[in-house]
Specification:
The chain is of the alpha/beta class and 232 residues long. It is 31% helix and 28% strand. It has one domain: P-loop containing nucleotide triphosphate hydrolases (Rossmann fold, 3-Layer(aba) Sandwich), CATH 3.40.50. The relative contact order is 0.19. It binds adenosine-5'-triphosphate and magnesium ion. Magnesium ion binds next to helix 1.
Amino acid sequence: MPMEFAVECKGVIKDFGTGSVRQRVLHGIDWQVPIGATTFLVGPSGCGKTTLISIIAGLLSATEGYVRILDQEITKMRRSRVVRFRADHLGYIFQQFNLLPSLTAVENAAVSLVVQGVTLATAKRQASVLLDRLGMESNKLKYPNQLSGGQQQRVAIARALVHNPKIVISDEPTASLDAETGHEVMELLGQVASGADRAVIVVTHDNRIFPFADYIATMSDGRIESFRKNSA
Ligand SMILES: Nc1ncnc2c1ncn2[C@@H]1O[C@H](COP(=O)(O)OP(=O)(O)OP(=O)(O)O)[C@@H](O)[C@H]1O
Ligand SMILES: [Mg+2]
């Protein structure tokens, strides 16, 4: 039977801290992310967007509830399986980029292929092609601290896409980019999303890229308030 949803969240609760400093950040999220589409997740700062997508991507554990992604319950997987699952199927673009400071741009972008067992030379070749597409031709041998915010963001995007993952989850992928580069990035993400077993989730405040959304989920105070098809 074909998959119905790329991601299915059921009753996802997340508490941070313990005792008197305990804070409930997600209040029982029920959410189904369509397959073959780009879904935006929007909402005010601090409403829980990064927390939710971190749980979906297996980077953070849920306090209660479950997440199925590509028909597998990631919230139940052992740590080693989560790592493997992420390497095989997920691309994650971090809000703070999280580049490795001692690797060049092209080496950083190649990391997701290297962890899959691809040789370094091949991985760097493929990473290089993607960086070219993102307008990074002349910056590939620079280290992260020699790159602007927008350039670091493009390296983080290349790293998340280079291994051709089925699901890409991105936290503000265009926040540091000019309009033209932002459009190029969204076109790349749109290509990733347009497969029968694929999907892209984009957390964003950037209304310049709203036309690229197929669906929009609005979050507020730890809850999904609305979920609709994008008519824009
Ligand atoms: N590791 C943590 N420990 C304690 N509290 C946390 C932690 N991570 C996030 N929070 C809290 O959880 C809430 C939601 O944070 P989150 O980062 O998910 O928000 P967000 O919607 O992504 O915001 P922004 O748009 O600013 O990125 C905030 O109140 C934040 O302070
Ligand atoms: Mg965030």
